[in-house]
Amino acid sequence: MKFMKRIAIVFGLSAFAGIASAQAFETIRNHKTPLFQVFDPALAADQWLSVVQEEHEMPMPSGMKESLRRAVDKERSRFNQRNINRRGNYTGNPTPPASITPNDTKGWDGTSGSGTPNDNHIAVSNSGMVISVLNTVIRVYDDQGNWKKQWGLIQFANQQKKIDVFPTMDRVYDPRVLYDPIADRFIILFMHGITDTRSFIVVAFSQTNDPLQGWNVYKVPGKPTNDLIWSDYPIVSQNSHDMFFTVNLIGNGASWEEGFTEAIIWQLNKADGFKGDTLRKDFYSNIKYQGKSLRSICAIQNSPMPEGTDNYFISVKPIDKVNDTAFLLHINNTQQSGQAELSMKVLVSPMKYGFPPSALQPDTSYKLRTNDCRVLSAVRIGNQIQYLQNTMNFSTLQAHLTHNTIFHIDKNPVIQAGMITDDSLDLGYPAIAAAGKTGDDPSTVIVYVYSSPWHYPGTGVVYRNRLGEYSNKVKLVQGKSLIYYSFIPKGEQRWGDYEGIQAKYNEPGVFYTVGSYGKNNGMFAWISRITLSDPLLNSPVSDVRIFPIPAAKDLYIEVSVEKPAVYKASLVNMLGQYVKSGIDISLSEGIHKLKIDADRLSAGTYELQLTADNVKVRSQKIIIQ
């Protein structure tokens, strides 16, 4: 059975809505945390055998409205009764061409962690050490999947030789891991506690590039703004100097939406952590629009390398049934500078997103919750940002993914909106990584989880090249059973909170991913090593590129634009005669793909001309057969 029938892509282009210039964000500078302890993995027992803890859900990381979720699922159920026979298992010819489809070169079972759902994240060093974290545990492998060691995250703090007072840890969750290719070090972050009296965040910096050696461990407060809150659901990023993470602050004893207080941003000085010095930090709060706090701010990865001195963030309205607003935030300097400031721009997407329905399994009474439509993963590539959300596909009432691009982020940003859809599958919990070698190549790789009435939950990957063309979907691991936890109602099963992907920085075109799949009625992790075969990755991005040459039917044009403008395109034959007179095309900054129906032209050689304000800015010879 083929894994992929069709990826459909819907595009639109937004206008820039404005700048929230009157916003008074609160910034606390040089917040300091002393080194707590040096953790030595050699002193931690290899956790080859684990005690199965009492079954429980991990803290709810979603802005889910139960009444809305049930209404959306009921609407989808009625729709499926009318339309279920219009879809089936995968058939037909895959598009686009298989020549750019990622290769799954290595895969292995990851660990399982106490609790559900899976909170999966991964990092790989230049020397090939792989760290996989899931819920409560950490595993270290070599790059071929050979298991080096596993231990509980709790041991980062519950060890002897403590330098500072650290409470006994009993509830850890939401781990994240980063690899810094510049410092050649790892960073791990995870949450503790679900009440104000127990909430804190553990951040650990590896002392060397070997994760089996020592780690400098710090405790970051989980209630930085008042005494009756706790921190939940971190998203991490980094640049050359700093690590950033965002969290939601939740009030005690209330549901997620009722207890939500605000989302904040932490900025940590990485050099302090790697050295084991007192950790200097800034944090940003009171991040509001029209008097309401932004929810679930996503820290954006700097790509293709984590360089620079600034960082971007993005948020949407994640618990709305339908919306089109996005918030682009920017911290403009390093923590050490003492001058870092937060700003915000408000954007409107030309394509609406909305609260996603639950995903279906082969027994459709066991529904998988998709939480909400927060931004789950994003990358900055040059002067653009690509971001992904779980969302409702309003045409089919399936759970699918937005894949949007924000162009010229430093000036007047606009959103080009897209959606990754599928005839049969529900898709969820995407993670994205930049694939190009340089900052002007917007190629990306996306890992996600999938499920359907014909497919047990599994993990897949898709590649999008610099021209916006998607590869075939690749099945990295196929589910072997339903996801069904007996302590959760049938229609409210947990599916996942996030998956992970990282490029191997010193091997272009190589990526490590971690995702989830169904087995033994539970969720298990699967780690994959994938490689790319796109020939464009080894070619520089040109100002204008025509392909294929010669063209027989469709002629594609790749254009790199330095500034937004209305350009006039014309075709001239070798006698200097205009074969096709100028047509106006509005292009934003970045790389665009255009198409000419070559079958309308006689065979021969032509020159494509692009002009702006009557001045020729681009020209390229093309051949039609």
Outline of the structure:
Helices cover 4% and strands 49% of the residues. It contains 3 helices and 46 strands. The strands form 11 sheets. Strands 1, 2, 22, 27, 28, 29, 30 and 31 form an 8-stranded mixed β-sheet that branches. The protein has a 5-stranded antiparallel β-sheet with strand order 3-25-24-23-21, with no helix packed on it.
Question: Could you explain the architecture of this structure?
Answer:
The chain has 625 residues and is mainly β. The protein has two domains: 522 residues, Methylamine Dehydrogenase, Chain H (7 Propeller), CATH 2.130.10.10; 83 residues, Macroglobulin (MG2) domain (Immunoglobulin-like, Sandwich). 4% of the residues lie in helices and 49% in strands. The protein has three helices and 46 strands. Strands 1, 2, 22, 27, 28, 29, 30 and 31 form an eight-stranded mixed beta sheet that branches. The protein has a five-stranded antiparallel beta sheet with strand order 3-25-24-23-21, with no helix packed on it. Strands 4-18-17-16-15 form a five-stranded antiparallel beta sheet. The longest helix has 18 residues. The two termini are 38 Å apart. The N terminus is likely disordered.
Q: Could you say what the CATH architecture of the largest domain is?
A: 7 Propeller
Name the CATH superfamily classification of the largest domain. YVTN repeat-like/Quinoprotein amine dehydrogenase
The unreliable regions are 1-11, 81-96, 548-552
- Count of folded domains: 2
Strand count: 46
Overall mean pLDDT: 85
Number of helices: 3
Q: State the helical fraction.
A: under 10%
Termini distance? 38 Å
CATH C-level class of the largest domain is: Mainly Beta
Q: Tell me the overall shape.
A: globular
Rg for CA atoms? 25 Å
Which sheet architecture does the biggest sheet show? Answer: 8 strands, mixed
Strand content: over 45%
Structural class comes to: mainly beta
Query: What is the name of the CATH topology of the largest domain?
Result: Methylamine Dehydrogenase, Chain H
